Amino acid sequence: MSGEVGEDTVRQGTDEAAAASGGASGTTGADGATSVRDGGGVRSLAELEREVTARRRGPAYGEDALITCDRLVRIFTADGVEVQALQGLDLLVGKGELMALVGASGSGKSTLLNILAGLDVPTAGAASVGGYDLLTMDAGSRLRYRRDVVGFVWQQTARNLLPYLTAAQNVILPMQLAGRRGGFRAKRQRAARATELLDMLGVGYCHDRSPGQMSGGEQQRAAIAVALANNPSVILADEPTGELDSATGEQVFASFRTANEELGTTVVVVTHDHAVANAVRRTVAIRDGRTASEVVRHTEVDEHGQESVVAREYATVDRAGRLQLPRDYTDALDIRTRVLLELESDHIGVWPDRPGEAKPEQRD
Ligand SMILES: Nc1ncnc2c1ncn2[C@@H]1O[C@H](COP(=O)(O)OP(=O)(O)OP(=O)(O)O)[C@@H](O)[C@H]1O
């Protein structure tokens, strides 16, 4: 959907001193005090140092987020050829969010989800979920992480449930595997939780049915109950409605919403399903292994008390300050390799580079 701009990017720069000085030039006065000239006037080096220190003391990237991906890279090597599935992806997901990841085939969505699920390890960058560092955790922590922190729902209904167990037995299984000791009482509690989860997701009537006796939608809703069994912080779902018709898909999505609203579980769904992508508050688009844009929706009430959902699309700015301009914008202005930038008090102007044309500030 988008093209990259200006030496392919619009770069704010991450080096703190450079950021603070804004690419300024420095001079040393007769008194030996160094000053720096930038667009906003002359600042002393001491002032710049104070700014840099203030930045350092600010909250760390992703400090409050449940999921943090910081310049995440995943390179696969197949037959001697390297594929960069993730190319420095940044993403923050807050606790209790219900959000969707979208993107063209091959953009890196499943790779990201597998990393977040603890099934795959990134090549570089940083990623953490609920305080677990996904790059450095040892085998024991990885096991605990996959058992207690994340639940997973796959697209293929057959992959989510064991065919020879009933829906209730499927939900009980992860609780048993969690290995918490306990006698008859624990057994009764596990059974009660399975019943409660299946009821909550609207498939209580499938309690004693095996997957073969359930529809695809019922199986996916039971799969969500399985994913919730050990009360994870987050559920990850890869195309959970991909094999279903739209009406059934809506029912399955409603179950994710129920889990999110009733239990406060954070839900991240990879989807090509527009109905799902449009039903969540936040939809993040991945392109070429990076987050490219996102749509945020909120409810507005007009003067008659009528509620409507308003969607706003944002371009994402990564940690290095890169931003991808939508391709229809770059096409419309024939922007190819570089742009002129103009910093205004409340926005940044982006101008096509047309040699011979007046500079932006001279155009009005
Ligand atoms: N195990 C692997 N070995 C080699 N290349 C891989 C592997 N897994 C993924 N890739 C490659 O990484 C890139 C991203 O793949 P990924 O499956 O994450 O994309 P996706 O966005 O989920 O696509 P789709 O929507 O089709 O599922 C693709 O080019 C893919 O071919």
TrEMBL record:
Would the keyword Nucleotide-binding be found if you checked this record's keyword annotation? yes
Name the chain's protein.
ABC-type lipoprotein export system, ATPase component
User: Which sequence ranges form a coiled-coil region, renumbered to this chain?
Assistant: none
Pfam families registered for this protein in UniProt? ABC_tran (PF00005)
Alphabetically sorted, this entry's keywords are: ATP-binding, DNA-binding, Lipoprotein, Nucleotide-binding, Transport
Q: Give all residue intervals belonging to the SpoVT-AbrB domain.
A: 312-355
- Keyword Lipoprotein carried by entry: yes
The source organism is Actinacidiphila rubida
